[in-house]
Design goal:
mainly alpha; disordered N terminus; binds arginine
């Protein structure tokens, strides 16, 4: 906002401004205003209170180490540990109090500890800074989130595999450009998502393996002169090892970014699956009846059953991608080591984690409980000359015609069938022979949708026998009997 010029001010205002020269033109408000703004912009407690469990765990690991190494007396270490347990019990029972003056979860906990146990509380922060503290807490939180997402995705895979096994031979149209392409099986289609989720889980697992190092003991940025034992705190918090560089350890947010980029990728997969359900549930398709529990009605149109959960999964993917972008842009160009910008790392991660967990749960329910209308799918697979490729393949295999030429002959057959308003296998043998005399009676066996899918036995193909093999492998990988 532009400041008013002194010339434009009223007499009283001008007088105050002059009297209070250090506070400049905006006079009296300066003492109140900016400090209130500072308190508000500085406070992370409204969101970082979500880290309280991790903060207590890390503090307990730290003080136990301070006690063992003799940096703090055994007596004080014990008092601090017990005090931290009391604070944790209070948070558990009543929630974390939000006092902006205490800025964040770290100061909130330490201040409550001081109220409870007195001056000994002040020894907890020996050989530590909020910089290594927040880096440690946040890693612990993201690590938990990674474990939760893995469990959720495993449940989704199990649902996909169960339905795929049930529908290994259920025929539906396969699409490219959302135009009927070739018949596939529903089991094959569902197993495509099993594969995507398998890769998502492996991305999250990679991130977990890489991030599992303890920043605790890096202190503000340079390490500490106290004889701390970083192996001990790392072990207590189930980290694989302490981080190797203190500057990196307090500055690194790759672990959060890897979580977010993997989450974004996963949300794209969930969104595509949601989109399939939305299309399949539409009346012209009618491939699926969505579970009532994951649908809503319309306030005006009594007949409606809307795929809101699927639409929100599709929508949430946009927000999760946004969270990932937000943190990338926050981190870009920050010099080492800690800068306060990094306090903004938490909201996007918390938001994405919540949205992703919900999206996974919604899609798991949808896959598990959807009512697939296989008759409608089978019927749709008959439309759109989905077995034209099978005619071309037959000409190659049985009549020795080069594929390009076979493709051309088949095109003429499709045109003729279109003019007749009939499917390909309704053309008579005479009609087919009029297009190319090398076409023989045997062709009809290849033109049914069943023959079409059964023929696609290449590894990873849609033949029911192949789909069953993939389902069996997936069951074994998931430990299903
Ligand atoms: N609330 C801060 C954050 O989340 C904690 C670290 C503060 N460190 C500091 N040097 N001001 O980033």
């Amino acid at each position: 906002m532009a400041q008013p010029s002194v010339a434009a001010m009223g007499k009283e205002t001008k007088k105050r401004a002059m009297d209070n020269s250090s506070n400049q033109m905006w006079g009296g408000r300066f003492a109140e205003g900016p400090s209130a703004i500072m308190r508000e912009i500085n406070a992370s407690i409204p969101f970082d209170k979500a880290l309280w469990r991790q903060d207590i765990a890390a503090s307990k690991a730290h003080v136990a180490m301070l006690g063992v190494t003799g940096i703090v007396s055994a007596e004080d270490a014990k008092a601090i540990e017990q005090g931290l347990d009391t604070v944790a019990a209070e948070y558990e029972a009543n929630g974390v109090p939000e006092d902006w003056d205490l800025e964040d979860i770290h100061m909130t906990t330490e201040s409550r500890l001081a109220e409870l146990i007195g001056p000994a509380a002040g020894r907890l922060h020996t050989a530590r800074s909020r910089n290594d503290q927040v880096a440690t807490d946040f890693r612990l939180w993201v690590r938990d989130a990674l474990d939760q997402v893995d469990a959720g995705l495993e449940a989704l895979q199990k649902a996909l595999v169960a339905r795929a096994g049930e529908h290994a031979a259920s025929i539906m149209p396969g699409f490219t450009h959302l135009q009927t392409a070739q018949p596939v099986t529903l089991g094959h289609h569902l197993m495509a998502y099993y594969e995507m989720i398998r890769r998502d889980r492996s991305r999250f697992a990679d991130a977990r393996a890489r991030m599992n190092e303890s920043p605790l003991g890096s202190a503000a940025l340079a390490g500490t002169g106290f004889p701390i034992d970083r192996e001990m705190t790392a072990q207590a918090l189930a980290f694989d090892r302490p981080t190797a560089n203190s500057l990196d350890a307090v500055s690194d947010r790759d672990f959060a970014l890897e979580y977010l980029t993997a989450a974004a990728q996963c949300s794209l997969h969930l969104s595509r699956l949601a989109e399939e359900f939305i299309i399949w549930a539409s009346q012209p398709f009618g491939f699926v009846r969505l579970p009532d529990a994951l649908s809503t009605g319309s306030s005006i149109m009594p007949q409606k059953k809307n795929p809101d959960a699927a639409e929100l999964v599709r929508g949430h993917a946009g927000r999760i991608v946004g969270c990932s972008t937000a943190l990338m842009v926050t981190m870009k160009g920050l010099p080492l080591a800690y800068s306060k910008d990094m306090q903004d790392d938490k909201p996007p991660v918390f938001e994405a984690a919540g949205l992703l967990a919900l999206s996974i749960a919604a899609m798991t329910g949808m896959v598990a409980d959807a009512d697939f209308i296989t008759a409608k799918m089978r019927q749709a697979a008959e439309l759109g000359y989905a077995t034209a490729t099978d005619l071309a393949d037959w000409l190659v295999r049985e009549a020795g015609i080069p594929f390009r030429e076979a493709h051309h002959i088949t095109g003429s057959a499709v045109r003729m069938a279109e003019q007749k308003g009939a499917p390909l296998d309704q053309l008579s043998i005479e009609e087919l022979k009029s297009i190319d005399s090398r076409i023989g009676d045997g062709v009809f066996a290849a033109l049914s949708v069943e023959a079409s899918v059964a023929a696609r036995t290449s590894h990873g193909g849609t033949a029911p026998a192949e789909v069953e093999k993939r389902v069996a492998e997936a069951r074994a990988a998931l430990g299903i009997e």
